[in-house]
Amino acid sequence: MDDVQKLKNLSEQTTFEADGEPLVNASSHRETMRLSSPPPACFSPKEKDHAFTHPAQLPNGQKIILLKTLLSSACERDCFYCPFRAGRDFRRATFKPDEFAGLFSKLTDAKMAEGVFLSSGIAGGGIRTQDKLLATAEIMRKKYNYRGYLHLKIMPGAEKDQVYRAMQLADRVSVNLEAPNTERLARLAPHKIFLEELLQPLKWVEEIRKTVPAYKFWNGHWPSTVTQFVAGGSDESDLELLTTTSWLMKNVRLKRAYFPAFHPIRDTPLENKTAVDPMREHRLYQASFLLRDYGFDLEDLPFTHESNLPLHADPKQAWAQMNLIENPIEINNADKLHLIKIPGIGLKGAEAIINARRINKLRDLSSLKKLGVIAERAAPYLLLDGYKPATQLPLL
What is the C-alpha to C-alpha distance for residues 239 and 184, in angstroms, rounded to an integer? Predict the structure, then answer.
């Protein structure tokens, strides 16, 4: 197997891994794209050209071509959902650290890749595997002077010093929690330990941030942290997933959580389990953005009696229906926190409203539309200078 074929083989195993931000266009429909269209948890490989690279958008808005791959698909763990679990019959491949670093350098020189997400199956324990990931990153940074985006996975059981070193080399580090708590993890990965192996490294990242100045890390910044759950894989509720997500955002400054919907993999213990509706994944993303960016609390989210988000309703819209129909928000004096709770008004739209009303009062939906607000969506929940707006916008 040559290096390119090996890379394709390894990259195919990372389709369930997530990185990057939703790819959106800068338009007046930004909030609709952000909160009402399914943000891609995983990026589908290009079938033409390079099957191992993916379009991605970084948190700063920069669009890059991302290589998302494994150092090795050999794994001693037997997670029930995982395509490269121990004992599964498929062709495995492994790169040595210097082999991968050299190949990636050729890809960047050829402009076939601009960033890399690097994970691995676990062979010889989490500590040994983490050492190989760190060695690869060090060769990339030092020998090949790679200065682009690097997302390093932290292996279950990694030591604190290894987490620290990963933070010195990477723009982003992550640990896949996979499930929201110990009980649920046992249904997906019975030989992983939720608190000690998975949650602890995320806590270490935050401890290090609090004690070591940012200038000592890559490009003078602390790396961001993310995690991933297998939504529906352990029959958990949305409330369980979002409770853990909310805690992580508040306590360890988690940048974001990914919620790829469970789908069965042939020749795994869960191969006969029903795939999860992708709309559930979509609603979880919407709700997590509300918790992170829009000032919502768990208590604000419209959970059903089964502790799940309704699939038919946007959670922000559902909240507004319950809270704003009878008590609409006056656009001309509401603060930013109240403005962003109105459907159709995003973070930038709220800023634009605040700036515009310093000059003149806003009295019609057309004025809001010019500010980037999705006015038709916002109309039922607001007042314009004391009056409910007419919902029909002029054509011109």
Answer: 13
In this structure, which amino acid lies at residue 63?
K
Residue closest to 114 by CA, chosen among 68, 50, 66, 60: 66
135 and 54 belong to one structural domain: yes
Q: Evaluate whether residue 389 is within a structural domain.
A: no
* Mean local confidence (pLDDT), 45-53: 51
Q: Is residue 319 part of a domain?
A: no
| Predicted confidence (pLDDT) at residue 280 exceeds the cutoff of 50 | yes
Which residue type occupies 122?
Answer: I
Six token digits for residue 140: 């990339």
Distance between CA atoms of 260 and 157, rounded to whole angstroms? 23
Please spell the DSSP secondary structure of 252-274, one letter per residue.
Answer: S---EEE-PBP---TTSTTTTSP
The answer to whether the CB of 95 falls within 8 A of the CB of 139 is no
DSSP assignment letter at 231: B
Write down the residue that tokens 């890559």 correspond to. 218
Burial of 159 (0-12, 13-18, 19+ CB in 10 A): middle
Residue that finishes a domain, picked among 250, 277, 294: 294
Domain range for 358 is: 324-383
CA 313 – CA 171 distance, rounded (Å): 35
Give the per-residue pLDDT at 47.
37
Strands 53-57 and 63-70, bridge-based pairing = antiparallel
Mean pLDDT of the chain: 90
Residue 312 lies in a domain: no
Helix axes 238-251, 278-293, angle to 10 degrees: 30
Output the domain CATH number for residue 143: 3.20.20.70
pLDDT digits (tens, 9 = 90+) for 209-240: 999 999 999 999 999 999 999 999 999 999 99
Shared domain check, 253 and 344? no
Together in a domain, 279 and 358? no
Residue 374 located in a structural domain: yes
Is residue 121 very low, low, confident or very high in pLDDT (cuts 50, 70, 90)? very high
Q: Is 275 exposed, middle or buried (0-12, 13-18, 19+ CB in 10 A)?
A: exposed
Q: What CA–CA distance (Å, rounded) separates 207 from 170?
A: 17
Looking at the structure, do residues 328 and 253 belong to the same domain, yes or no?
Answer: no
Give the model's pLDDT for residue 168.
98
- What is the CA 156 to chain-centroid distance, rounded? 19
Contact 66, 117 (CB under 8 A): yes
Q: What is the pLDDT of residues 51-103, one digit of tens each?
A: 678 888 887 788 999 999 999 999 999 999 999 999 999 889 999 999 999 99
